[in-house]
Amino acid sequence: MEIPLQITARNLELSEEIKSEIHQKAEKLDKFYSRIVRCRVVVASPNLRRREGKLFKVNIDITVPGAELVVKREPDEDIRVAIRNSFSAARRKLEDYARRQRGDVKHHEETPLARVSSIFSKEGYGFITTPDDREIYFNKNSVLNHDFKRLKVGMKVRFAEEQGQEGPQASSVTVI
User: Fold this and answer.
1) What is this structure's pTM?
2) The domain containing residue 17 runs over which residues?
């Protein structure tokens, strides 16, 4: 961290033990993203009227190049739980930010394309042919949005393949 950690307490006094715990958790954040500019932690005991017990709320503001990451979690009766939950959320936000900075994005596998090659409407099933000339069975229950009646030979579809008892079959077929 370029600027030292700032810890603020509102409506309560923090023990040295709690401050030390916050320092340790803040130092660990550097492992997830090494370019943290500043980290501010606010521990508050909101003035909510309750019959018993206190609530502790921990907010964390992390400044990184080009962004401000803000963590606000629900208050908890145990100050250590509130600290742990907030720093866990901060870690996840930093990991997500670091992934975006590196350009790491999840690429979802696109469902394959095929063409309807034959339909047996009365029997409730048909076959699709993939671009590599494999023939795959499907039944009317695997066609999404109740589109089985709309299907015509030659239509393009997307499908999810699985191994059936008698060979490959489509577990879902979507008309495109």
Assistant:
1) 0.59
2) 6-102
